[in-house]
Amino acid sequence: MLAAFHDEWDAAALETHALRRDLGEARTQLSQALYQHDAACRVIARLLRERDEARAALAEAQRAGGSAPGAGERKRAAPAAEAGAGGASEEAAAGGGGAPAEKRAKAGLTADVLEAMIACNKRLSKNRKKRPAPEGLAAPDDLGAYTLESKFPVHQTSKQGVLALAVLPGGGAGGVDLVASGGVDTKVNLSAARGKRLQSLAGHKKKVLDVSFVGSGAASALLASGSADSTCKVWKRAGPGENFELASTFQDHDSEVTAVCPHPTGDYLATASADGTWGLYDLQAALCLAQMGGGAGPAFTCGAFHPDGLIWGGGTGGTGVVQVWDVKTQKKAAEMACSSGPGDVSALSFSENGYYLATAARGEAKVWDLRKLKCIQTLNLSYAADVQCGVAFDHSGAYLGVCGSDARVYGVKQGWECLATLPGNIPTKKGCTPQVRFGPNAQYLAVAAGDHNLRYFAGST
User: Fold this and answer.
1) Does pLDDT of 289 surpass 70?
2) Which of 388, 392, 402 is nearest to 439 (CA)?
3) What distances in angstroms separate CA 385 from CA 108, 320, 335, 345, 362, one per listed residue?
């Protein structure tokens, strides 16, 4: 009983500290917003004054018969000034510092973009065929000995549910792995792997549905988050080892953003939405290049790029189907029925060798051979039919993690045999898909689910 009270006291103290920190961040953001608003008002006032002067000059020229030199230029100047005032108003409405911008016409995938993606595809596919298993990769017998090593509260206890999880190897101070999580509490939190929370990012207005690190550099990687508030936010570090801060906000979807998918180049990002569309963004230009899908199509519930970057897969809601899209043509190439009946595809994951795709629907998980577009394995799960489950391959492609009411590891080279069922129950919650991610070389598993905790499973050291 005392231990339980002590845990609750620690959680309450952490939450109070987080609230105070969030209050300070909110005050800083408010002062910046007020400054930007004041600056925008001054710009608009100046442009309106210039517009009125141009209109007065135009009226004077018209009274003079329109024959005076430069009258034509002044006639064009007035609407130009009006357009400038309007543009300034739009810019002021968009705000600075990552506020969502107005929807703009899509630039499309230019030849330069496609060339960069194709070059990345060739380089990765060539290297992948020759790459041996990484040194230090956990052996199958080691995974069977994994136990619950630690559990850390990283989100609010009053709004439980961790909906998204991502791991950046060596991304923390001193080379410690960095773990990002998104929750029902609308926060994107950063923690040291197998350690406590380091930073809380506020900005989304509704629950955070997906998070992902973009780029492989531990110091230069960006962080993307998608939310039920229909926005995708991109966060960056102010400098090596510094905290993350908001870089840009994208608002091109009409419904919740259910997936953020980094492209292997590290320069592009895809988003998937419940409005049935998925978009592709240039992160350096902060621009939406293209938006696919829509119409009467089903909502997207999850998504990911193939490791070589020229295929994008998106799970759908209600139909239990995964759509496979060709990025070059921006057209749907195939569909795979991942559920025996109507239902949501709750998670999908491509293997690092590019051969396999794992999908999860309510109560079942399947493995697909992408070379044949054929289901080669249906994993025998004992979860209840209403339990959503998550899936994820480790970076080597040797293991597949599945998480529902418990966490399991399957061996790829062992004929998809269940190598380990990790001890302890995973709390499930309606509308909350359990998340599982491997650490480098499968040395640990990070699991998040229906409560506010991150769980780490590892072997004894």
Assistant:
1) yes
2) 392
3) 42, 14, 23, 13, 6
Helix (H) or strand (E) holding 259: strand 257-262
Buried b vs exposed e over 113-122: b needs ≥16 C-beta within 10 Å? beebbeebbe
Architecture of the domain made up of 119-458 = 7 Propeller (2.130)
pLDDT tens for 201-252 read 999 999 999 999 998 776 678 999 999 999 999 999 877 777 899 999 999 9
* Tokens read off for 352: 């690092």
Domain boundaries, the chain: 2-94, 119-458
Instruction: Print burial letters for 248-268: b (CB count within 10 Å at least 16), e (below 16).
Output: bbbbbbeebbbbbbbbbbbbb
Of residues 365, 428, 373, 426, the one with CA closest to residue 400: 365
94 touches 104 (CB < 8 A): no
For the whole model, what pTM was predicted? 0.76
Q: Are 146 and 407 in contact (CB under 8 A)?
A: no
- The pLDDT confidence band at residue 155, using thresholds 50, 70 and 90, is very high
- Tokens 């980094």 identify what position? 262
pLDDT at 68 over 90: no
Give 244: exposed, middle or buried? Use CB within 10 Å, 0-12, 13-18, 19+: buried
Q: Quickly state the pLDDT bin for 104 (edges 50, 70, 90).
A: low
- Which amino acid, residue 367? V
The tokens of 89 are what?
Answer: 């108003």
- Residue 250, CB-side half-sphere exposure with 13 Å CA sphere: 32
- How far is Cα 225 from Cα 206, in angstroms, rounded to an integer? 12
388 neighbors 412 (Cβ within 8 angstroms): no
Q: What are phi and psi of 15, to 5 degrees?
A: -65, -40
Rounded to an integer, the average pLDDT of 274-281 is 95
pLDDT in tens, 376-418: 999 988 887 778 899 999 999 999 999 998 999 999 999 999 9
DSSP 8-class letter at 160: -
Q: What integer pLDDT is reported at residue 66 of this predicted model?
A: 43
- Neighbouring C-beta atoms of residue 83, cutoff 10 Å: 12
Using CA atoms, how far apart are residues 436 and 449, in angstroms rounded to an integer? Answer: 9
Sequence-ordered strand ranges (E) for 112-186: 147-153, 162-168, 178-183
Judge whether 162 and 211 are in contact, CB under 8 Å. Answer: no
State the burial class of residue 152 (Cβ atoms within 10 Å of its Cβ: 0-12, 13-18, 19+). middle
What counts of helices (H) and strands (E) characterise the chain? 4, 28
